[in-house]
Amino acid sequence: MASFKRLPLNSTIRWLCSRYTTSVTVITRVERGSLACSGHIAQCRFVHSSGTGASQASPNATPQRLPFSRISPEDLTFFRQLLPGRAITDPDMLESCNVDWLKSVRGNSEVLLRPKTTDEVSQILRYCNERNLAVNPQGGNTGLVGGSVPVFDEIVLSTALMNQVLTFDSVSGILTCQAGCVLETLSQYLEERDFIMPLDLGAKGSCHIGGNVSTNAGGLRLLRYGSLRGTVLGLEAVLADGKVLNCLSTLRKDNTGYDLKQLFIGSEGTLGIITAVSILCPRKPKAVNVAFLGCSSFEALLETFRCCRGRLGEILSAFEFLDAACMNLLVKHLKLSNPITESPFYIVIETAGSDAAHDEEKLHNFLEEVMTSSLVTDGTVATEEAKIKALWSLRERITEALTHDGYTYKYDISLPVEKIYQLVTDMREHLGDRAKNVVGYGHVGDGNLHLNITSPSKDPSLLAAIEPYVYEWTSSCQGSISAEHGLGLKKRNYIYYSKSSEAVGLMGDIKAMLDPKGILNPYKTLPDDLHS
Ligand SMILES: O=C(O)CC[C@@H](O)C(=O)O
Ligand SMILES: [Zn+2]
């Protein structure tokens, strides 16, 4: 986050609340049956069961290894010739790409390929498709649903060396870059040119833009800049047979036929491997403020959100929340300190605008209203970079704090905004003392709850109590069981809670057309019943 000087550093503003004076310191599915296929003439067809509602398969079971070929010495020779020094078989080097960030899913790949160019990706996929070798595309490996690591012995194709910015147009703000650029590196590149990336997320130091686009990552700024489905103007993808699909448009408007890039956004590398993207970037705001506020109830928090949108309008860039249980974990495991009085709920509000005085006045009027009406009970505001970062840490580092609390069951749910915390409350009551902690946080502005449940260790009986309860609850509110993390391996069999069997069936048809042998990121996204 850049340094945006605004309100006077460390100055204190006092709002007279109706009850007391509060100090605010001014300071972010494959009928692969017939894939009993021999060698490289394998054919499979994606079919689907009809009208069954939720999947009948055992949803959390490890899938069966599909009959892909095993890597042979000849295969290794091919890869080594194509990618000298970049076809890795050293087990130590393979270790980190076989396990996910949460250390909850582990594959057994024996080959890591590190292409630098689209042509190399194309040659790899053409070869793998002919040989019926499965491929696991991998970016920064920061995914939370087991989508970015192999399940069995899939070849890992890493985008790490595809990290070049290709073009940047400072008039239109359109950046074109390779898929392996790290999000934070792109942010720095753009900030030097007075622009920013339209997305920001806690994993920015490691995640790759290609992975972000493949998963349609949401993050902290979606409220303001919208989803990647809007800001990604074009992309280049390599199809399973090695064909390069160049949709790397830099046009804001283009209604010539189907918008094919959308197929690759959010499909988790199951339809093609994204090798480059063009993305529309906003100007770097001249003034940024971050407010960290306390609320005594979720109802008050929602009312604060309503007021915030009205008062701050176009300068509002984030409205995030965490509950008291999250704060306890941040303090306990990360030794972060709570900058305000203990509250049942906390809000992080960010404003980003072009006129400091105008933004200050709007923020002041908003804070005055929510504090005098006791919607907000305490708060602190930052304008200086270090303090903005410190306040944002309290939201961005919750995932990290949870990893120190034990095994974490993670749910990423979209709901009508007024219902998002009811799920946390109901889950706590439903689980009683079976869970160590049940916490809720997330993107209020996007109606996106992160419900996380910890346990001293992996606990199948706890999991049986959580699922399918959480999915039934969500489905009963017409919510989404994956708002922004994707389905990956972990959630693939729950897709029917959010999508009709017709919709899932069509997904299977698209998969069969683009990747008839199913070599791209198998076992992910689509449910197992499409494979039976
Ligand atoms: O760890 C999680 O459940 C959420 C991670 C991320 O989407 C966030 O918003 O912090
Ligand atoms: Zn999130």
TrEMBL record:
Source taxon at top rank: Eukaryota
Catalysed reaction equations from the record: (R)-malate + A = oxaloacetate + AH2
Catalytic EC class: oxidoreductase
One Pfam family linked to the record: FAD-oxidase_C
Documented EC number(s): 1.1.99.39
GO biological process: malate metabolic process
A single GO cellular-component term on record: mitochondrion
GO molecular-function terms, A-Z: (R)-2-hydroxyglutarate dehydrogenase activity; FAD binding; metal ion binding
FAD-binding PCMH-type domain: residues covered: 105-284
Cofactor: FAD
Function: Catalyzes the oxidation of D-2-hydroxyglutarate (D-2-HG) to alpha-ketoglutarate. Also catalyzes the oxidation of other D-2-hydroxyacids, such as D-malate (D-MAL) and D-lactate (D-LAC). Exhibits high activities towards D-2-HG and D-MAL but a very weak activity towards D-LAC.
Family recorded in the similarity comment: Belongs to the FAD-binding oxidoreductase/transferase type 4 family.
Protein name, UniProt field: D-2-hydroxyglutarate dehydrogenase, mitochondrial
Gene transcribed to yield this protein: d2hgdh
